[in-house]
Design goal:
It comes from Bradyrhizobium macuxiense. The protein has 270 residues and is α+β, with helices and mostly antiparallel strands. It has three domains: 87 residues, Helix Hairpins; 49 residues, SH3 type barrels (Roll); 96 residues, Alpha-Beta Plaits. The strands form two sheets. The chain has a five-stranded antiparallel sheet. A three-stranded antiparallel sheet has the order 6-8-7, covered by helices on one side. Strand 7 and strand 8 form a beta hairpin. Helix 1 packs antiparallel against helix 2. 13% of the residues are buried.
Length: 270
Protein backbone atom coordinates (compact mmCIF):
# COMPACT_ATOMS: atom_id res chain seq x y z
CA UNK A 1 0.00 0.00 0.00
CA UNK A 2 1.53 3.25 -1.15
CA UNK A 3 1.90 5.97 1.40
CA UNK A 4 0.38 9.26 0.31
CA UNK A 5 2.96 11.78 1.49
CA UNK A 6 0.80 14.71 0.48
CA UNK A 7 -2.06 13.50 2.68
CA UNK A 8 0.37 12.79 5.55
CA UNK A 9 1.91 16.20 5.19
CA UNK A 10 -1.49 17.88 5.17
CA UNK A 11 -2.54 15.93 8.28
CA UNK A 12 0.67 16.84 10.12
CA UNK A 13 0.23 20.49 9.22
CA UNK A 14 -3.41 20.40 10.33
CA UNK A 15 -2.72 18.69 13.65
CA UNK A 16 0.34 20.86 14.18
CA UNK A 17 -1.71 23.99 13.72
CA UNK A 18 -4.37 22.56 16.04
CA UNK A 19 -1.72 21.79 18.68
CA UNK A 20 -0.32 25.31 18.44
CA UNK A 21 -3.84 26.73 18.61
CA UNK A 22 -4.58 24.57 21.66
CA UNK A 23 -1.44 25.78 23.45
CA UNK A 24 -2.25 29.39 22.66
CA UNK A 25 -5.84 28.84 23.75
CA UNK A 26 -4.69 27.29 27.03
CA UNK A 27 -2.35 30.21 27.73
CA UNK A 28 -5.04 32.77 26.90
CA UNK A 29 -7.62 30.80 28.91
CA UNK A 30 -5.33 30.66 31.94
CA UNK A 31 -4.83 34.41 31.71
CA UNK A 32 -8.56 35.05 31.26
CA UNK A 33 -9.38 32.83 34.25
CA UNK A 34 -7.07 34.94 36.43
CA UNK A 35 -8.63 38.13 35.07
CA UNK A 36 -12.13 36.77 35.71
CA UNK A 37 -11.20 35.82 39.27
CA UNK A 38 -9.79 39.27 40.00
CA UNK A 39 -12.74 41.01 38.32
CA UNK A 40 -15.35 39.08 40.32
CA UNK A 41 -13.39 39.65 43.51
CA UNK A 42 -13.19 43.41 42.90
CA UNK A 43 -16.87 43.67 42.00
CA UNK A 44 -18.01 41.79 45.11
CA UNK A 45 -15.60 43.69 47.33
CA UNK A 46 -16.86 47.01 45.98
CA UNK A 47 -20.43 46.00 46.88
CA UNK A 48 -19.51 46.21 50.62
CA UNK A 49 -22.54 44.07 51.54
CA UNK A 50 -21.03 40.80 50.36
CA UNK A 51 -19.18 38.76 52.96
CA UNK A 52 -15.45 38.40 52.14
CA UNK A 53 -15.78 34.62 52.43
CA UNK A 54 -18.46 34.64 49.70
CA UNK A 55 -16.40 36.88 47.42
CA UNK A 56 -13.35 34.61 47.70
CA UNK A 57 -15.43 31.51 46.99
CA UNK A 58 -17.30 33.00 44.00
CA UNK A 59 -14.13 34.45 42.48
CA UNK A 60 -12.53 31.01 42.71
CA UNK A 61 -15.65 29.52 41.10
CA UNK A 62 -15.42 32.01 38.22
CA UNK A 63 -11.81 30.99 37.60
CA UNK A 64 -12.65 27.29 37.37
CA UNK A 65 -15.66 28.01 35.14
CA UNK A 66 -13.44 29.81 32.59
CA UNK A 67 -10.92 26.95 32.70
CA UNK A 68 -13.73 24.44 32.07
CA UNK A 69 -14.89 26.36 28.99
CA UNK A 70 -11.33 26.54 27.70
CA UNK A 71 -10.90 22.78 28.23
CA UNK A 72 -14.02 22.04 26.17
CA UNK A 73 -12.81 24.38 23.40
CA UNK A 74 -9.43 22.60 23.29
CA UNK A 75 -11.15 19.23 22.94
CA UNK A 76 -13.24 20.52 20.06
CA UNK A 77 -10.08 21.71 18.27
CA UNK A 78 -8.98 18.10 17.98
CA UNK A 79 -12.36 16.97 16.70
CA UNK A 80 -13.54 15.41 19.95
CA UNK A 81 -17.29 15.86 20.17
CA UNK A 82 -18.40 16.96 23.60
CA UNK A 83 -21.64 14.97 23.25
CA UNK A 84 -19.63 11.78 22.76
CA UNK A 85 -17.39 12.73 25.63
CA UNK A 86 -20.37 13.20 27.92
CA UNK A 87 -21.70 9.78 26.86
CA UNK A 88 -18.37 8.14 27.66
CA UNK A 89 -18.17 9.90 31.00
CA UNK A 90 -21.72 8.81 31.75
CA UNK A 91 -20.85 5.18 31.02
CA UNK A 92 -17.82 5.36 33.32
CA UNK A 93 -19.41 7.61 35.97
CA UNK A 94 -19.08 5.00 38.70
CA UNK A 95 -15.33 4.60 38.26
CA UNK A 96 -14.80 8.34 37.95
CA UNK A 97 -16.96 8.98 41.01
CA UNK A 98 -14.95 6.51 43.08
CA UNK A 99 -11.65 7.95 41.85
CA UNK A 100 -12.73 11.52 42.59
CA UNK A 101 -14.66 10.78 45.75
CA UNK A 102 -12.36 12.83 47.96
CA UNK A 103 -12.23 15.76 45.53
CA UNK A 104 -15.99 15.83 45.01
CA UNK A 105 -16.62 15.61 48.75
CA UNK A 106 -14.32 18.59 49.27
CA UNK A 107 -16.23 20.51 46.61
CA UNK A 108 -19.59 19.65 48.20
CA UNK A 109 -18.23 20.56 51.65
CA UNK A 110 -17.02 23.91 50.29
CA UNK A 111 -20.53 24.66 49.02
CA UNK A 112 -22.00 23.73 52.42
CA UNK A 113 -19.48 25.93 54.24
CA UNK A 114 -20.41 28.79 51.94
CA UNK A 115 -24.14 28.31 52.48
CA UNK A 116 -24.09 27.92 56.26
CA UNK A 117 -20.99 30.06 56.91
CA UNK A 118 -19.91 28.77 60.33
CA UNK A 119 -16.97 31.18 60.13
CA UNK A 120 -15.92 34.30 58.27
CA UNK A 121 -12.67 35.76 57.02
CA UNK A 122 -10.59 36.83 60.01
CA UNK A 123 -12.33 34.58 62.58
CA UNK A 124 -10.18 32.70 65.11
CA UNK A 125 -11.20 29.05 64.83
CA UNK A 126 -10.17 25.56 65.89
CA UNK A 127 -11.04 22.90 63.34
CA UNK A 128 -9.72 19.43 62.42
CA UNK A 129 -7.06 19.67 65.13
CA UNK A 130 -5.72 22.99 63.83
CA UNK A 131 -6.13 26.51 65.18
CA UNK A 132 -5.68 29.83 63.44
CA UNK A 133 -7.29 32.78 61.72
CA UNK A 134 -9.42 32.11 58.63
CA UNK A 135 -7.67 33.51 55.56
CA UNK A 136 -9.67 32.11 52.61
CA UNK A 137 -12.17 29.49 51.44
CA UNK A 138 -11.78 28.05 47.94
CA UNK A 139 -13.61 25.25 46.15
CA UNK A 140 -11.48 22.54 47.71
CA UNK A 141 -9.41 24.05 50.53
CA UNK A 142 -9.80 26.22 53.64
CA UNK A 143 -6.78 28.36 54.48
CA UNK A 144 -5.84 29.24 58.06
CA UNK A 145 -3.00 31.41 59.36
CA UNK A 146 -1.52 30.49 62.75
CA UNK A 147 -0.30 33.11 65.27
CA UNK A 148 3.30 32.49 64.14
CA UNK A 149 2.26 33.35 60.56
CA UNK A 150 2.26 29.76 59.26
CA UNK A 151 -0.12 28.76 56.48
CA UNK A 152 -2.42 25.79 57.17
CA UNK A 153 -4.41 24.32 54.26
CA UNK A 154 -7.29 22.03 55.22
CA UNK A 155 -9.47 20.03 52.79
CA UNK A 156 -13.04 21.28 52.99
CA UNK A 157 -14.26 17.76 53.66
CA UNK A 158 -12.28 17.53 56.91
CA UNK A 159 -13.43 21.02 57.94
CA UNK A 160 -17.13 20.29 57.35
CA UNK A 161 -16.91 16.84 58.91
CA UNK A 162 -15.35 17.94 62.22
CA UNK A 163 -16.31 20.15 65.14
CA UNK A 164 -15.71 23.86 64.45
CA UNK A 165 -14.81 26.03 67.45
CA UNK A 166 -15.19 29.69 66.54
CA UNK A 167 -13.76 32.06 69.15
CA UNK A 168 -14.96 35.12 67.23
CA UNK A 169 -18.69 34.38 67.01
CA UNK A 170 -19.51 35.77 70.46
CA UNK A 171 -16.85 38.42 71.04
CA UNK A 172 -18.22 39.50 74.42
CA UNK A 173 -16.09 39.96 77.47
CA UNK A 174 -14.11 37.20 79.09
CA UNK A 175 -13.35 36.80 82.75
CA UNK A 176 -10.17 36.74 84.78
CA UNK A 177 -10.35 34.99 88.15
CA UNK A 178 -7.46 34.54 90.60
CA UNK A 179 -7.62 32.97 94.09
CA UNK A 180 -4.90 33.18 96.75
CA UNK A 181 -4.64 32.61 100.53
CA UNK A 182 -4.15 35.49 102.99
CA UNK A 183 -4.44 35.92 106.76
CA UNK A 184 -7.73 37.27 108.01
CA UNK A 185 -7.82 40.72 109.55
CA UNK A 186 -6.92 44.17 108.40
CA UNK A 187 -4.67 42.76 105.65
CA UNK A 188 -7.74 41.48 103.77
CA UNK A 189 -9.25 44.94 103.46
CA UNK A 190 -5.89 46.45 102.60
CA UNK A 191 -5.15 43.94 99.86
CA UNK A 192 -8.69 44.14 98.48
CA UNK A 193 -8.60 47.92 98.18
CA UNK A 194 -5.19 47.95 96.53
CA UNK A 195 -6.08 45.17 94.09
CA UNK A 196 -9.33 46.89 93.12
CA UNK A 197 -7.49 50.16 92.61
CA UNK A 198 -4.99 48.51 90.28
CA UNK A 199 -7.72 46.69 88.36
CA UNK A 200 -9.76 49.84 87.79
CA UNK A 201 -6.68 51.50 86.30
CA UNK A 202 -5.80 48.50 84.13
CA UNK A 203 -6.22 49.31 80.40
CA UNK A 204 -7.47 45.77 79.64
CA UNK A 205 -10.64 46.27 81.70
CA UNK A 206 -13.46 48.33 80.25
CA UNK A 207 -14.68 51.38 82.13
CA UNK A 208 -18.16 49.84 82.48
CA UNK A 209 -16.81 46.72 84.22
CA UNK A 210 -16.64 46.53 88.02
CA UNK A 211 -13.97 44.16 89.40
CA UNK A 212 -14.70 42.27 92.62
CA UNK A 213 -12.71 40.86 95.55
CA UNK A 214 -14.38 38.57 98.07
CA UNK A 215 -13.59 35.81 100.54
CA UNK A 216 -14.30 32.56 98.72
CA UNK A 217 -13.62 30.18 101.63
CA UNK A 218 -11.81 29.72 104.94
CA UNK A 219 -8.61 27.73 104.45
CA UNK A 220 -7.34 27.30 108.02
CA UNK A 221 -8.95 28.37 111.30
CA UNK A 222 -6.54 26.55 113.62
CA UNK A 223 -3.66 28.93 113.06
CA UNK A 224 -2.57 30.52 116.36
CA UNK A 225 -1.79 33.88 114.77
CA UNK A 226 -4.98 34.16 112.74
CA UNK A 227 -7.20 32.17 110.39
CA UNK A 228 -6.18 31.90 106.75
CA UNK A 229 -8.84 32.64 104.16
CA UNK A 230 -8.92 32.51 100.40
CA UNK A 231 -9.53 35.70 98.47
CA UNK A 232 -10.91 35.51 94.94
CA UNK A 233 -10.38 38.39 92.53
CA UNK A 234 -12.61 38.44 89.44
CA UNK A 235 -12.98 40.94 86.64
CA UNK A 236 -14.59 41.05 83.19
CA UNK A 237 -12.04 41.75 80.47
CA UNK A 238 -11.73 41.72 76.72
CA UNK A 239 -10.89 38.16 75.58
CA UNK A 240 -7.79 39.33 73.75
CA UNK A 241 -6.49 41.00 76.93
CA UNK A 242 -7.34 38.18 79.36
CA UNK A 243 -3.85 36.64 79.58
CA UNK A 244 -2.10 40.00 79.90
CA UNK A 245 -4.51 41.22 82.60
CA UNK A 246 -4.16 37.98 84.54
CA UNK A 247 -0.37 38.21 84.48
CA UNK A 248 -0.42 41.81 85.67
CA UNK A 249 -2.87 40.85 88.40
CA UNK A 250 -0.66 37.98 89.57
CA UNK A 251 2.38 40.27 89.66
CA UNK A 252 0.47 42.86 91.68
CA UNK A 253 -0.83 40.26 94.15
CA UNK A 254 2.67 38.82 94.64
CA UNK A 255 4.02 42.30 95.29
CA UNK A 256 1.27 43.08 97.81
CA UNK A 257 1.73 39.81 99.69
CA UNK A 258 5.48 40.29 99.91
CA UNK A 259 5.02 43.83 101.27
CA UNK A 260 2.71 42.50 103.99
CA UNK A 261 4.82 39.47 104.90
CA UNK A 262 8.15 41.32 105.13
CA UNK A 263 7.04 43.90 107.78
CA UNK A 264 5.39 41.13 109.79
CA UNK A 265 8.58 39.10 109.69
CA UNK A 266 10.63 42.12 110.73
CA UNK A 267 8.34 42.76 113.71
CA UNK A 268 8.64 39.14 114.86
CA UNK A 269 12.44 39.33 114.85
CA UNK A 270 12.62 42.48 116.97
Amino acid sequence: MALNYETLKASLVLYGLNAVSAIVLLIVGWYLSTVAQQFVSRMLTAAHRVDPLVSVFLSSLARYAVLAVVGIAVLQLFGIQTASLVAVLGATSLAIGLALQGTLSNLAAGVMLLLFRPFRIGDDVEVAGKAGKVRALSLFMTELVTPDNTQVLLPNGSVWGSAIVNHSTYPGTGEVKVSFPVRAGRSIKQISEQVLEKLRADPGIGAQQVPEVHVSKVVNVSDAVGPVVELTVSAKVNPAEADAVKQRLLDEISSLLSDIVEPATAENTQ
